Amino acid sequence: MAPLGELLAGVRGVLLDISGVLYDSGAGGGTAIAGSVEAVARLKRSRLKVRFCTNESQKSRAELVGQLRRLGFDISEGEVTAPAPAACQILKERGLRPHLLIHDGVRSEFDQIDTSNPNCVVIADAGESFSYQNMNSAFQVLMELENPVLISLGKGRYYKETSGLMLDVGPYMKALEYACGIQAEVVGKPSPEFFKSALQAIGVEAHQFLSM
Q1: Are residues 95 and 171 in the same domain?
Q2: Name one Pfam family in it (predicted).
Q3: What backbone phi and psi angles, to 5 degrees, belong to 164?
Q4: Would you say residue 91 lies in a domain?
Q5: Which residues span the domain enclosing 64?
Q6: Does one domain contain both 114 and 149?
Q7: Residue 109: how many other CB atoms lie within 10 Å
Q8: pLDDT tens digit sequence for 11-37
Q9: Residues 146, 110: one domain?
Q10: Sorting pLDDT into bands at 50, 70 and 90, what band is 209?
């Protein structure tokens, strides 16, 4: 195996995942994964540029950052690339008015978005809001559109909390895709555009970063 210095030659930045890498979410704010607080601090003291990338869609960036800071992480809201703000930018650029099937914890991210007379659906990890009634309402909106647009904040199958594994947005996204005969537009990991926006934020080229 090549020496660490050789492996890092040309690397200028690091993209860090949050859930399952830095901490496990759950009741009481979750728990930091052993060694993660110290690892982030060491990276920030190094010559490398650090950016946090997350598919978290149950919390606003402000709430997520506050939670991580309480766990001891050195992190600010401006260092986090998250799907909800990215989706809002897309909605504004394309004149889309979403029907929101999302968690109440992230709803504040969409406060400046027009949701009247919806011409698309935005789906995220809605947790307990993934009821039959709410899924069917989203289905009905899509089926009434001539050119249905479904935007999904991530497409994960499941994630880990301190209480165990939890279904993510992916299975519900797939249900709407199947029912409506459409393909969702994914905003968040693993979308190349999502990673590209994170790299642009720290001024690093695609061949100059590590992802963890």
Answers
A1: yes
A2: Hydrolase_6
A3: 135, -170
A4: yes
A5: 14-39+50-82+191-203
A6: yes
A7: 23
A8: 899 999 998 899 988 777 789 999 999
A9: yes
A10: confident
